[in-house]
């Protein structure tokens, strides 16, 4: 989306994108003991009047993904890198004023036109690694997409669910 070499993913983002294992649960203090913060899974689904192959490809096409994945109607991604293969990584950078927000991850599973699974971290919280699973099922007319986002901090669950709902609506 920008000239080659003029952007880089936020420093440190690539290292976290290359991690496949889930991150340890962050700890927080409640008095004198340290406890793991509760995590939840978010589930969102959407139907499309498009073939499953077109919906699937939208996740892996850098130019198209930059207009809808983590983007808003008025704010497309400033930079997108996608290596759309199992083991490949991605980095989508959003410009917010004078700072960059990077969404990074690694593709864990890719089954063309059907399934996609990837890790996901977001700058500035690169130490929190979540996992997203996308299943696309063909229907008589169009397809149905089901998304499960795992390891989401419980306090962010409503925000994340609303964000995914908006993102999938924008697809």
Describe the structure.
The protein is an alpha+beta fold. The chain is built from 4 helices and 9 strands. The strands form 2 sheets. It has a 7-stranded antiparallel sheet. The two termini are 18 Å apart. 29% of the residues are buried. The model is unreliable at 1-8 and 10-29 (pLDDT under 50).
The whole-angstrom Rg is: 16 Å
Shape: globular
How many strands, what sense, and barrel or not for the largest sheet?
A: 7 strands, antiparallel
Helix share bin = 10-25%
Q: Give me the side-by-side strand order of the main sheet.
A: 3-9-8-7-6-5-4
Strand content: 35-45%
Number of distinct beta strands: 9
User: Treating each run of at least 4 consecutive H or I residues as one helix, how many helices?
Assistant: 4
Low-confidence blocks of residues: 1-8, 10-29
* Backbone structural class: alpha+beta
């Amino acid at each position: 989306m920008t000239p080659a070499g003029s952007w880089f993913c936020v420093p440190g983002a690539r290292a976290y994108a290359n991690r496949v294992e889930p991150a340890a649960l962050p700890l927080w203090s409640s008095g004198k003991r340290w406890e793991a913060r509760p995590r939840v899974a978010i589930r969102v689904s959407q139907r499309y009047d498009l073939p499953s192959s077109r919906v699937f490809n939208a996740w892996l096409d850098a130019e198209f993904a930059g207009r809808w994945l983590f983007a808003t109607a008025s704010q497309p991604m400033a930079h997108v890198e996608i290596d759309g293969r199992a083991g490949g990584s991605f980095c989508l950078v959003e410009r917010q004023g004078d700072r960059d927000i990077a969404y990074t991850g690694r593709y864990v599973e890719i089954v063309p036109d059907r399934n996609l699974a990837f890790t996901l971290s977001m700058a500035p919280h690169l130490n929190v690694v979540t996992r997203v699973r996308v299943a696309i099922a063909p229907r008589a007319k169009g397809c149905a997409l089901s998304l499960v986002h795992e390891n989401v901090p419980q306090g962010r669950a409503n925000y994340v669910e609303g964000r995914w709902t908006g993102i999938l609506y924008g697809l």
